[in-house]
Amino acid sequence: MLPAFSKILLSLPTKAYRGVVHRHIPEGGDAAATSFSRSAGGRWNPPGEFGALYTTTDEDDIEREMERAAEKRGITPKDLMPRDIVTISVFLQKVLDLTDPAVLHALKFNPDELTEGTYERTRDLARAIFKAGIEGIVVPSAIGKGKNLVIYSGNLSSKSSVSEKRRRKMLL
User: Fold this and answer.
1) pTM of whole model > 0.90?
2) Of the candidates 19, 115, 96, 25, which has an alpha carbon nearest to the alpha carbon of residue 58?
3) Domains, the chain
């Protein structure tokens, strides 16, 4: 599967991305740390291979994103506390928009595969994306609202930036 995705990725357009995104992290933690995602893996990064910053474009989605993260681990949101919500300013050179129907069609993905089911296909695609040097992907939020930006820090160019702008304590 990886070689097929790699060949297709060469033909797909990437764009620059500039804006702010949000994520919840352990209180006092590094907003740009990928060590947990690297070891545990996620939908868009296989465990032990490379890290990813999972962010949302809508701060209002943070609480639901945390509830979903807790649910997937079989714990309650309170078990994850205390946490901070951080706002991050990003400027990326090479981002692939997986919410674009033409991109999904070229990759032979249907929209539901991006948020539901097992992680096998999304991780295969993520491997190819990371290998292609793409800095981030825009994906639909698994909570059914908004979009997420997944950032591959290991691929950031010298012209790209990811910097914390604001932090506040998360309240449940």
Assistant:
1) yes
2) 19
3) 2-169 (3.90.175)
pLDDT digits (tens, 9 = 90+) for 96-143: 999 999 999 999 999 999 998 889 999 999 999 999 999 999 999 988
Q: Which of 28, 83, 81, 31 is nearest to 55 (CA)?
A: 31
User: What is the rounded CA–CA span in Å between residue 127 and residue 137?
Assistant: 12
Over residues 45-103, the pLDDT tens digits come to 999 999 999 999 999 898 888 888 888 889 999 999 999 999 999 999 999 999 999 99
Neighbour tally for 45: CB within 10 Å: 27
The three-state (H, E, C) secondary structure of the chain, written as one string: CHHHHHHHHCCCCCEEEEEEEEEEEECCCCCCCCHHHHHHCECCECCCCCCCEEEECCHHHHHHHHHHHHHHHCCCHHHHCCEEEEEEEEEEEEEEECCCHHHHHHHCCCHHHHCCCCCHHHHHHHHHHHHCCCCEEEEECCCCCCEEEEECHHHCCCCCEEEEEEEEECCC
